[in-house]
Amino acid sequence: MDLTARRATRLASGQLRSSPITAIVEDDNETAKQAEQIQHLEASIEALREDGRDDVAALAERRDLERGQTKQDRKRRQQKTFELEVRIQEREAAISQLTGLAERLGWKVAETRRRRQRMEAIRQYEEAITEHSRDAERSTAEAARYRKEVELLWQEQREEEDGAEVDEGEGFAVVDSTSAEPAPS
């Protein structure tokens, strides 16, 4: 196992320090995949940084050796130094690119979480609306039943009042609502 793979393994197992982005882990498959991608990217970033540190150390060592070397050796070492500098720059560019990708994935995970929370809130509000609608329908049905009862009671009252007026006008007294007897003279 080469040095880069060992570092990536140590980062993935938690033996190396990691950024707050790796703390993002969700039960949701999509989010878990994104979090796994972030961890993989961070492992790659850390491995690149470690390799970069090795290259920087090698570069410093080469510069120390360049002092006091022959012209031919110096040219060879300068070429190697240039190659090391190019590799360092390429690694820094790759680290920057991977860091940007990890940050975008982190934002995606956070947006997925916000979207899921919003959908849950919408679902809860819809359930509450449905329940209140059922309650309102029951209340409306009850109110209609009560209105009908009141209407029937008013109708009975009017009929009773109309019947009493007719009975009094003909000289009858109302004993009860079912029978009328002649009034005493």
From TrEMBL:
Residues 158-170 have a biased composition (Acidic residues). Residues 122-149 form a coiled coil. Keywords: Coiled coil. Residues 59-72 have a biased composition (Basic and acidic residues). Residues 1-24, 59-80, 157-185 are annotated as: Disordered. This is Uncharacterized protein. It comes from Friedmanniomyces simplex.
